[in-house]
Amino acid sequence: MIRILLVLGLFATAASAVEPDEILSDPTLEARARVISANLRCVVCQNEPIDTSNAGVARDLRLLVRERLVAGDTDKQVFDYVVARYGDYVLFKPPWKSTTYALWLTPIAFAIFGMLSILLILRRSSREFTIVEALSPEEEAQLSELEKRKKDRDI
Amino acid sequence: MIPELGQFALTLALITAVVQGVLPIWGASLNNALWMRSATSTASLQFVLIAIAFGALMRSFVVSDFTVLNVVENSNSLKPMLFKVAGTWGSHEGSLLLWTLILALFGAAVAVLGRNIPTGLKARTLSVQAWISIGFLSFMLFTSNPFDRVFPAPLDGNDLNPLLQDVGLAMHPPLLYIGYVGFSIVFSFAVAALIEGRVDPAWARWVRPWTLAAWVALTGGIALGSWWAYYELGWGGWWFWDPVENVSFMPWLLGTALLHSAIVTEKRGAFKSWTILLAILTFSLSLLGTFIVRSGLLTSVHAFAVDPERGIYILGLLTVSIGGSLTLYAARVHKMEPGGLFAPISREGGLLLNNLLLTLATATVLFGTLYPLFLEGLTGDKISVGPPFFNTSFIPIMLPLVLIMGIGPFLSWKRADLAGIISRLKWVILIAGISALVVWYIQTKGPALAVIAMAIAVWLLLATLREWSSRIRLGQVELTESLDRLRRVPRAAHGMTMAHAGLAVCMFGFVGSSAWKSEEVLFVQPGKLVQIAGFDVTFEGVEQVQGPNYTASVGKLSVMRNGRPVTILRPERRSYPVAQSQTTEAAIRSTPAGDLYASITEPVNQEIEGQWTLRILYEPLVGFVWFGSLMLVFGGLLSLSDRRLRVGAPKRKARSASLPIAAE
Amino acid sequence: MKKLLSLLPLCAAIGIGIAGWWGLNPNRDPGAIPSVLIDKPVPVFELSDVAGTGTPGLATQDLLMSQEPILVNVFASWCLPCRAEHAVLARMVREEDLNLVGINYKDKPATAAKWLAELGNPYSRIGSDQTGRAGIEWGISGVPETFIVGPGGKVIFRHVGPISSDAALAKIRGALAVARKDKP
Q1: Contact B94, B148 (CB under 8 A)
Q2: Which of A16, A20, A94 lies at the smallest CB-CB distance from B389?
Q3: Among the ranges A82-91, B356-365, B480-489, which has the highest mean pLDDT value?
Q4: Kindly report the CA angle at B218 between B217 and B220, in degrees rounded to 5?
Q5: Min distance A74 CA to chain B CA atoms (Å)
Q6: Peptide bond between residue C144 and the one before it cis (omega within 30 degrees of 0)
Q7: Given an 8 Å threshold on Cβ–Cβ distance, is B382 in contact with A128?
Q8: Which of B338, B234, B321 lies closest to B573, judged by CA?
Q9: What is the spatial distance between Cα C37 and Cα C35, in angstroms, rounded to a whole number?
Q10: How many CB pairs under 8 A join B and C?
Q11: pLDDT tens-place string over residues C105-119
Q12: Is the peptide bond before B577 cis (omega within 30 degrees of 0)?
């Protein structure tokens, strides 16, 4: 696709990111702006947040984010503003909605499945283990004697 | 002439691989010893032929032979020699050649070093390995020939992407590939075992050194890659959960699980089918990584020559190798008899939990990485899954893992006494708790999770050291005896201690640099003073410097602390005329406490003249990330140097072999 | 049960394989981001004219009244592919009785005017977007981009990149034909 992306050269000239003349004088607002722009994906430069991207559009969006904050928007309002124009694609943290329920819930399902299978394995193994390993009192005594000697001998 | 020789060698290698793929495995089913043994020579020959091809390509780069298209596209006569050499694997075609070279290297290494492996298993393993070779050699010859000529030859080349002209990144692909591709031999061993229908502790013992070697290289490769991103990209980040980073991380996670589950198979004969599955899946993830990186399936910051047609070919390779091996697995796995029994609280139990958590982590990363593709396929919606998802799903899996890592090495096989272990660790628990309070006191800002993670890292470090000192009975017996024990403890055990401690050290870096980073961005002109993290940094100005294939603006920053000079930082902005691009060379002052990191760029706003955009970061503890990674690598190497693991080495030290083999 | 579990990895691999195979189809551009404006009203913006062209400026209001579809083209004189596209657009306006309006994105008015004087001006209205704000309202990611606004001011189509290839032209024509049919 030949067209001029609003980038000064994609990945090849990384290291531009937020510029001094964009920074807000209010440190609290600026801190919020940094967090927001670290979580907004640049639309032209593959997989970078607008905070570290040197694309022209990323800079415009950084300025826009700060403008909205100065105008009194909440973080959510700022995100919504950008999403209304560029879609969910720009959010590095996918929103909680019907298309992403599976994304957020599957790791939990994985964990439950894993726990259950581990419990099953352990229960079976330990049940058979107790049957096999049950020792008579004499054997127990012998074993502990052996173990004591082994401990003295080496590590 | 030389490039043709390279191409010819590559073709011969393909033919050799076909022979190696057919004869030994057939011989194994007919029990024909000669056919089986032919694998040793074909595997060696295949390696030599690919090495010749690789040498031919490297020579074309070294002498700047611009009749070769690949050299034209990725080199330039002005480029320093190191980067001419590294240019060999700087492109899609060249790196693929490196891939097959390493593939053949592992095959040849097993052929030559694996003298004690039974002939049948060895023959089948090398045949399977040869089939992977056939796939990749034909892929290269048919779609990505590195020796394609160009006529008329241009006077000079287009230069390699300047960002990649860096020592760290020159070494990154070879290490990463040794890791990725190294898992191929483990995969081949697993498929061979499935064909034979037999897995025993001896199998696990033959496989483990190869797993370890691949794991060590992959660890080094990933660490080198993120180190490069840290100092080269100019904003001090070292991990972004980018798809291309994730696909190198997943084989690492699963390879780590494999490393631990193979121990159980080796020592106790348990987890057999699971170990086999992990061996198959680890390499499958390496293949998936190759597919994703080279097909352009997902958008990533890491550029590579992408081409959907090549993607189709690799997808075909994946279908055959992954689909075939997993089908074989599903068909054969029931025939494996279950192994040793154990109580829930035992070394086996601990390693089971370790494997569960590592597999969960891998599955989560895999799912998150591919979810945008799934969703786009099903609904057409495009979304991004970025760091927030991975951090919230990955960290809760890893923290418990690190917790049990502290206890694991204390557990004895079959049945362990948890209460006894906890009581031996009460001081460690106490100190970890206190360190949490200390961290909380020093760093009031930043997330609470950082404080918890710090305490857990302290716990892991101290528990690991406690286990090590009790192993040599430090303080319990006389020092000379402790030293004697130190010598007698198997190196694999020392390796484990080193690697576990290394992870704890890494964690200090992870937490410190992500939770308590500070940053200043401003326009500067000579004389401007900046204060950051207790340092007074004065911008002295910029001078122009001429490099071999670039010009650079070098900034000078004098750094003072409490009125005393500390250092001078010289960040560079380089301009490469041939490649028509620019790079940032950050200047970094590293101390264990943290890195002072400076980079300069031209202001984006062109109306601002005579000033530079200066970015100064203070990244606390970030050096621990690299130091800890080094410890992981050395831990692995130490373990690999263990006589008992060294392939083909006879058990010479009867004494060390009689020691209880614990905790690797 | 155990047999079923041992098939699980294979099923997962097949699932991923199918997704990968779908993802490689040549019609899919991994970098393309669908526009959220499709089937939504034209965004709110108001741009003054490019000084020196004599063509009026462009605002939301201008796109709401038309009975015919309007082609909205985002262009700039510094954008090389725009030059190639310009000839195609000019011919379409000449031959097909098309209403073409432009958004001159982040351009110096003097350079833009010179560029148009040299190549001809097929636009009935041109808004000068020097800050790039209108571009953001339209959700553009680069230059050139072209939108089709249907009757009633609804955005019905977006094309990313120059309309210079036959394939791109065919897509635009198809979308225009649909828009004309939908006329109220």
Answers
A1: no
A2: A94
A3: B356-365
A4: 65
A5: 19
A6: yes
A7: no
A8: B234
A9: 5
A10: 69
A11: 988 899 999 999 999
A12: no
